[in-house]
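re: that chain from earlier
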Amino acid sequence: MTDAAYDALVVGAGHNGLTCAAYLARSGRKVLVLEAGERPGGLAATREFADGFRVSAAAHLLNMLSPEVAKDLALERQGLAYAARNLKTVVLPGDGRQLAIDGDRLEGASASDQAAFTVFQRQMQRFAKVLNRFCMRPFPRLTERRGRDNWLLAKLAWDVRTLGKANMRELLRIGAINIHDVAEEKFDSPLLKAALGMDAVLGSHMGPRSPNTVYAYLHRHLNDGGQGPALVRGGMGALGDAFAAAAEAAGATIRYGARISSIDLTDCRTAGVTLADGSAIAAPVVASNADLKSTFRLVGPLNLDAGFVRRVHNFRARGVTAKLHLALDGLPEFPGLDPADAGSRLLAATTMDGIEGAFNHAKYGECSPLPVMEISIPSVHDASLAPPGKHVLSAVAQYAPYALKAGWQAGREPFMRSCLERLEAIAPGIGEQVTAAELLTPPDLEAEFGLRGGHWHHGEIALDQALFTRPIPGANHYATPVPGLYLCGASAHPGGGLLGLAGRNAAKTILAGEAAS
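^ sequence. v structure.
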């Protein structure tokens, strides 16, 4: 049985897939989005894990959304609202001390660190602004260039030149080194260094001393303008709903419960897809919001060059990040923290060495007994997420390797205990407040959201997997070796995070290809 033909199919209703669908539909194309689950948004999802307690299932803070995408898709008109914006980042060592980052202002740091941080923030924002210009458009081809590629290269060179000589030299000096060394030469406070280290490694199989962590730090600060993250009212699922509403308002159709079993080819080019129920849907263009490995698994290795299959296999996407959800019968108390700041972005990470020590276990397939965590208590700002007088806690916990040596059946409870012990150290008595708990391990994230390897960014944010090399040679300009098949998800440039730019850029690439043919 063959369904009605479409101009384009989009695999997956994550935010990038929905962005791609919206831009394609706005251009007059007949677009169908196929989503295996029953809700849109992918990692931007809200779930009820205990009676009356709702939480953002994976990503829980919003700080990278492209303002251009938000404006083009009119996301606020489609229902996106914020419970809080420009949250502080507070590092809590558990001994009553604290350090807070509020824009470019520090609380709990020395005058010398404050002065150095102001300079650092301004410089990093300049670098991130230039990087964002690179991310706003498809990266030009460096071989077999066409006229448009030459123009884009010239524009990129000009963007870098606007930094000035001193900033250009500094970017070249630190761009490929690690965040540990940069922080060590600039700051005294271990807590400040820990905060910078967390920003560079969160969601990735890297420690602060890993190469590429300065680039990862800059990537994380795309579009934030030096401001803190935001909380979406209703949880991140409301963001997914807004993207879905925008795609439908543009004319796209979304079909839920539509699991794809294969991406089909005719005469070596894309012909559509076949669903798990055996039905086929024809289209000359398929844009995949699935990760790189999942996408080409649907194509099948026999339809691909052996060298390309090897590059897909070698793409690094080793998830080490778990998600912890707690239902609490009251607001936890953090020694030294003003209760008014309990709704901030809280970090359980004391030193760079502590983060690196936690990462060391992941290298050998072990969970860290002293995990580092990014913590949010969103119910402080959004009472709809918990019953009256109760609270919900959401924590991103590292390091928990996908391929746990002991296996997750044996490892789940010990890692849960380690996370609770770490929370108890910074919020004494919190254990007695827990009425329900849920831990989503990397294999759980893979099963629920279709992430191969359970990697939040679909693959490491590293220089050899970024910019003109993302994700791999042969598929680094959204188009793939299979004519008519495109990548529009976080595997593609510019990578992970709730930006929406991979979907936007992919749609523009598809439309430009149609215009040229």
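The chain has three domains: 8-51+58-82+235-316+455-511, 117-220, 317-449.
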